[in-house]
Amino acid sequence: MPEAGQLSVNDRVLLHLSRFATDVPPEEYSPDVTQAGIAFGVGMSRTHVPRAVKGLIKDGLVEELTARVKGHERRMNIYSVTTEGLRSAEDLWKRIRETTFPIQKEGASSKMAGKDIEELLGRKRAIAAVSRIRDGVVEVGETRRAPIRDFGDAPKLDHFYGREAELKVMDHFMETESRVLVVLGNRGYGATALTRKFLETQDEDDCLWTTLSPGTTAKHLEDALVSFGKGVSRNVSSLAEVLALDNCVLAFDDYYDVGEEVVEFFSDLVEAEGQAKIVISARQETPAYNWFYQKEQVDRGVVTELRIKGLDEESAKKMLGNEKIEKDALRRILMFTRGQPLVLKMLREGDSKALKKNTVFTAEEIGYLLFLKDKV
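^ thats the sequence. predicted structure below, dont judge the formating
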């Protein structure tokens, strides 16, 4: 019989996943069985989840699948309890029912056996409460706080297609010890849109979006981060405490033309300790003197780089709004535009003025591209 408060991380993850076990695989799985959902449900750092599920998979108690998840457009990695895992979870819960736990209820402390917690809350809610045990104490009256998602002036995503490979790299980054992800792309290649799309999928994490500009100061950035952190936890009062937050993503968009103090600010972020993940979309053409990290930091795994290129053919067709476009016409468009999403979007909208203003195409080339994009 386990001692009070001595459940292992693997035990807690197994209990959490057992709540979502079904005899027939669903068409869409609950977000609770993704890595982010496990972290949120068990009350642990997301970076610690891979180790736990890997151990459960090795023991034959859990299997990893790629499946559709409610609220998400694309397929994701999810974790499902096996038949052996269900038996193990059932045996574990039987032992827990006979174990006495320190509990916290409405600010008062006492002790309660697992079976009494089950009688009070119902089985599934009792398993959820025990799965989230912290410092040996079960919060009986605890309610799950909704993640704070401050997207500020982040752009809306009217059209977003493809980028499955890039999104998988970003998902993998969330599972590693790497703390900083830099999304690199020339202007118009969609680094901002990709970062925005990625944050939408992190629906169990606290997220903050900050757009950078030439006038951004280090003081402004620190104040914004601390203000956000205070909303996540009343115990936060400094930048170091913001960076220490679990299951938190801090996104900075359009790193390019920034002052020296901002370069230093980001250089310090790279080597700062903490659990928060940092995602920075940066222009490929950023001047060398403005770079805030070094190759050796990439080699050490502190920084992960994701260099993006133009859209693939199928995604380009969708961006153009003509999925039946003639093959040769598409080939010519991609040769001119290199698959830049921004240019393809302007073509879709027939916006010759925007094309003239934002590209180096001549008026004749713009007319030719507009002609090509409608060919079927």
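DSSP finds 17 helices and eleven strands in the chain.
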